[in-house]
């Protein structure tokens, strides 16, 4: 009952007429994010085949999920030799693969391990499903998205419409924290979060929040700081046993279902995402994105910002530029 409730909460706005079955692959499906993500996705009538890939345990995860009485057929694929089978014919790829953040570890600390994982998986996608829409969840997103883009460029299959960095967790957190402060239903709260997906690059546009957020300056700064450091809050609370896996799985599912609804022809769907962008002088930036059948339909601007928000954007750009450059340099030395 709980799982069906979660799916109903995630799929609000899904019309019966818009339901179109899509083939989805999850790379890193046995991990802390991958398993709950796959469970939530299994419930969607928009998915016809759910292919699960990891380097361990995927046959068991797939067998477990295949006993759920929903539409999607589940297949499990184990190890590099079976990666091609997991990707063949897929239309949407979600990549949560990678190591989780531990206490004292920054997202940059994850780079050396996760960069290689993402590069290898994206390279395989270029071979087996070059036209698939790719959604990068693996951190640090500010670097892994540029890595993915550069690998796809090297392979001659890069399409900026079909590459997303999933930053939805920042929006989910902002909505939850604002709802907590205002004492309202979180489903009625909408806070755009722009910039990137790490620390000070996470910029909640509270001036554009619905309903309106009106707090004293010190309380506003505390709220912004909590949104920016929410990942660390979870890492500390788990005391070394993990990072934000369940909330990330929820947020990843929310983004995936929004994308699938748009691919099925539903209009007017927007999500904030870290994508190829020209709204700043950086090549990638997270902002509201209109989703369509091919992925990115339109990258929207930032709207009217307060003086404080303008300052936050400018301060974030330096760190973002460094993270993007780091990813691009890594990809340049990666052997496809």
From TrEMBL:
One of its GO terms (molecular function) is L-malate dehydrogenase (NAD+) activity. It catalyses: (S)-malate + NAD(+) = oxaloacetate + NADH + H(+). Homodimer. Residues 167-330 form the Lactate/malate dehydrogenase C-terminal domain. This is Malate dehydrogenase. The keyword Endoplasmic reticulum does not apply. It is an enzyme of class 1 (oxidoreductase). Residues 23-165 form the Lactate/malate dehydrogenase N-terminal domain. InterPro entries: L-lactate/malate_DH, Lactate/malate_DH_C, Lactate/malate_DH_N, Lactate_DH/Glyco_Ohase_4_C, Malate_DH_AS, Malate_DH_type1, NAD(P)-bd_dom_sf. PANTHER family: MALATE AND LACTATE DEHYDROGENASE, MALATE DEHYDROGENASE, MITOCHONDRIAL. NAD(+) binds at residues 28-34, 54, 114, 137-139, 248. The active site is at residue 197. Coiled coil: none annotated. Keywords: NAD, Oxidoreductase, Tricarboxylic acid cycle. The keyword Glycosyltransferase does not apply. It comes from the Eukaryota. One of its GO terms (biological process) is tricarboxylic acid cycle. Belongs to the LDH/MDH superfamily. MDH type 1 family. GO terms for cellular component: mitochondrion. Substrate binds at residues 101, 107, 139, 173. Its EC number is 1.1.1.37.
């Amino acid at each position: 009952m709980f799982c069906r409730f979660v799916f109903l909460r995630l799929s609000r706005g899904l019309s019966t007429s818009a339901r179109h079955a899509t083939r989805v692959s999850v790379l890193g499906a046995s991990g802390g994010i991958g398993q709950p993500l796959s469970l939530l996705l299994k419930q969607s009538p928009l998915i016809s085949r759910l292919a699960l890939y990891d380097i361990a345990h995927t046959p068991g995860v797939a067998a477990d999920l295949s006993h759920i009485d929903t539409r999607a057929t589940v297949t499990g694929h184990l190890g590099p030799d079976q990666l091609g089978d997991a990707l063949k014919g897929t239309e949407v790829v979600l990549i949560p693969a990678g190591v989780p953040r531990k206490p004292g570890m920054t997202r940059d600390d994850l780079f050396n391990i996760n960069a290689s994982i993402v590069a290898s998986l994206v390279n395989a996608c270029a071979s087996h499903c070059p036209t698939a829409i790719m959604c990068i969840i693996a951190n640090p997103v500010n670097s892994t998205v540029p890595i993915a883009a550069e690998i796809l460029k090297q392979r001659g299959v890069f399409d900026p419409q079909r590459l997303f960095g999933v930053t939805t967790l920042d929006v989910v957190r902002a909505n939850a924290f604002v709802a907590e402060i205002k004492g309202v239903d979180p489903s009625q709260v909408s806070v755009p979060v722009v910039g990137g997906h790490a620390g000070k690059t996470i910029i909640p546009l509270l001036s554009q929040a619905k309903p309106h957020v009106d707090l004293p300056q010190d309380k506003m700064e505390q709220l912004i700081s909590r949104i920016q450091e929410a990942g660390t809050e979870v890492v500390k609370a788990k005391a070394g046993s993990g990072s934000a896996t369940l909330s990330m799985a929820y947020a990843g599912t929310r983004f995936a279902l929004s994308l699938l609804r748009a691919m099925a022809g539903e209009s007017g769907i927007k999500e904030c995402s870290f994508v190829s962008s020209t709204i700043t002088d950086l090549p990638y930036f997270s902002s509201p994105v209109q989703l369509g059948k091919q992925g990115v339909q339109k990258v929207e601007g930032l709207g009217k910002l307060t003086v404080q928000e303008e300052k936050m954007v400018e301060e974030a750009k330096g760190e973002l530029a460094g993270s993007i450059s780091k990813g691009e340099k890594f990809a340049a030395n990666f052997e496809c």
